[in-house]
Amino acid sequence: MRIKLHWRLTFIFYFVFILVLLIGYFYLVPQLRVYFEHSLKNNIKNQLLLDKHLLEKYYLDEDKFIEEADAISDRIGEKLGVRVTIIGREGVVLGDSDLSKDELKDVENHLDRLEIKQAEEKGFGISKRFSSTVKKELLYMAVPLGKDNSLGFLRFAIPLRDIELFETKLKRIVFLALLLMLIFGLLLFFSLSSYISKPLLEMIEIAKSYAKGNFLIKPSLRLKDEMGELAKALSIMSEEINNKIEKIEQDKTSLDAVLSSMFEGIIVTDKNGEITLMNPSLKNLFSVTSFIQGRKPIEIIRDIDVQSIVDEIIEGRQKFVSEEVKINLPEEKILKINGTAIIRDGKLEGAVLVFHDITELRRLEKIRQDFVANVSHELRTPISGIKGYAETLLEGAMEDRKNLREFISIIYNESNRLANLIDDLLDLSKIESGKMEMILRPLEIIPIVKKCVNILENKAREKAITVNLNLTDDLPKVLGDDKRLSQVFLNLLDNAIKYNQQGGSINISFFVRDEFLQVDISDTGIGISEKDIPRIFERFYRVDKGRSRQLGGTGLGLSIVKHIIQAHRGQVWVNSELGKGSTFSFTIPLV
Ligand SMILES: Nc1ncnc2c1ncn2[C@@H]1O[C@H](COP(=O)(O)OP(=O)(O)O)[C@@H](O)[C@H]1O
Ligand SMILES: [Mg+2]
Fold first, then answer.
1. Which of 99, 160, 228, 430 is a good FRET partner for 412, with 20 to 30 A between their CA atoms?
2. How far is ligand 1, taken at its centre, from the CA of residue 542, in Å?
3. Rounded to the nearest whole angstrom, what is the distance from the C-alpha of residue 492 to the centroid of ligand 2?
């Protein structure tokens, strides 16, 4: 069992106190006894001397003295409460306060008694002895009487028991006093030690609350001693810890803010490879909802590549790992993972993995690569045609006038196609790089449409296609670039003619939708299958390459349309049914 401090203090004080009292007791009592005996002896001696003086003065006649000796001793004895003996010069006991006159005759000669001998020699004698006369242990004191002991000796005796009784009484009194002091001492020391231990208990309580994380309590002590110093130190400590905690919390908040706002995913593990942190971005990427703390990456992400990067680092094989990993989430994603060892004081503490989602980057890269391949391919076709026919002509076909005309017209068509292609490519690259000049201003759409229909009139007539323009009154003006909008109409109308049936028709309608003008261009042509619809706005994508090429297409028209409309903050889309026809729609903002 734990003894509380203030009890312990009480016991220590009390132990010391008892020790002091015991020492006092065993030293004091004998001392007092000695003092008492001494003063008793002195008293008796003084009384003895006083009586000697009085007797000597009073009794000048020896016979009278002898006569009255017994009466004298009785009187003095009664008065002083001691045994008084008067002894004659020859040692005969003349009077004794304890004996009657008759008894005196049987008392032996006292001249050899030690106190008498000393009185005779030195004028005062003292001795302790058992008295055969009164059968008691006695203290004797004697003086000579008269000149040259002419009157004999006067002797007082007190029983030693008186001194012993006094000692017993004294012991009892001192013992009682000690007992009282012990009781009061216990109370005193208990309150004293509680007074001493109280500030310490307060400090313990405060330290306990600090341990629990509550640093707001301050010691109330204002003492100037060591306790006060301790209280001050505790107070300063709590303030400093509080400041540090605040600083850590601030740091944590900013770290959290950084981690949450980061686009990149982050995992931190400890040296056992168990996750300690995972930012929201990564949780989103892998749809993590479970508890992550202390678990292995493989349990959360279920990807062996990520786990092996962590293993590589925490097993100390690599300090830095950079890997591209393909993950099905379930759609395929390409992640670039950079793993770094966390090293503190030369010791491996864990690993940090940063995930960059580079799926889009890789997709764009692929589109660019495909584009370059496509462009080269598209360019090669007309060029090899031109080259082939020119060669054939040079090799002799020139001589045949019929061939000559046909071949040259093929060369002419091919070079037209080449020119178209190059024009479209240049337009596209200009739009994409933002270098195409667009001047948006309020304009009426109908005149632009009419102009474009006129341009394509011949082409439509060749296929016996009728173009219907559904005009509505008071069509609001749009905000656009007339040259670029013409390009949009030309491309869409050109397609509507090209991919239409012989004798088909084209309908052009306008609707005001919120702050936009929607234009629908419907044809009665071949239509587009559902699987092709999402792709027809891609560069070089054509449903039927051979047919498009034969019709002089480049596969870039719809891309250019899409870019121009988007530059006007509008949208473009298509509804189509295979074999029945298509409706291309786009919106442009009203003024
Ligand atoms: N009105 C339409 N009807 C059917 N298919 C069309 C229509 N317009 C476009 N397409 C399809 O979309 C492809 C892409 O069109 P576009 O970019 O204008 O290229 P191009 O006209 O040079 O072939 C065409 O090759 C064709 O397959
Ligand atoms: Mg086209």
1. 430
2. 6
3. 7
